[in-house]
Amino acid sequence: MVARAAREIAPGMVVNLGIGLPTKVIDHLPEGFPVCLHTENGMAGIGPTLPYEAADRNLIDAGGAYVSPLPGTSYFDSAVSFALVRSGRLDLTMLGAFEVAESGDLANWKIPGKFSPGAGGAIELAQKARRVVVLTTHTDRKGNPKLLRQCTLPLTARGHVARIFTDMAVVDVTPRGFALVELASGTTAKEVQEATGATLHLPAGDIPTF
Q: Assign residue 32 a region: left if phi > 0, alpha if psi is -120 to 50, beta otherwise?
């Protein structure tokens, strides 16, 4: 799933990788790939993650992983970081999710009854990036669908998710709702439909796999 999501990134993009699964995308990009990766805690142009013993422990991404600098890496405070976000300079943001609705609504910051430090940067990332994609498991730990007709959790943003990468499929958000684009190897369209809490529109002909 993460390797497939990495192929969403085109050369020359400015991309934000959100907390959780998205932060792993960096390690699936080819060496020297021409992309500017942004992390909202104050870096642009970050390189691959590093093990503890090899890391500069001052350099972390938004999820706390140790990252490496590249030639041209820049450092800035939160005001500048979010000025980049709010001014629409991100070509793409990759975010995790608790729920995604067939309309493109996103819920990814709070589960009622559980501690949350706050909405964080996801609200602005989801609303201001030119393209928003989600990386998440298709179901939660109890087997409940995360792709739904409507979100039941507090929303992060309305109608901004364009594509979802899961452990079962690649799904696009379209005016008709969820559309199956690709299947994970060994997974059937029927299995994906049964794990989806909304209508899943299937393409004509063979469905590509990843």
A: left
Catalytic residue among 40, 102, 124, 182: 40
Task: Identify whether 40 is a catalytic site residue.
Answer: yes
Q: What percent of the chain has pLDDT over 90?
A: 90
- Which is nearest to 94 in space by CA: 177, 139, 28, 153? 28
- Paired with 201 in beta bridges are 179
Give the pLDDT confidence of 65-92 residue by residue, as tens digits.
999 999 999 999 999 999 999 999 999 9
Q: State how far the alpha carbon of 70 is from the alpha carbons of 10, 32, 92, 129, in Å.
A: 18, 10, 20, 23
- Give the CA distances from residue 57 to residues 52, 67, 68, 72, 123, in Å, rounded to whole numbers and listed in that order: 8, 9, 10, 19, 28
Q: What is the pTM of this model?
A: 0.94
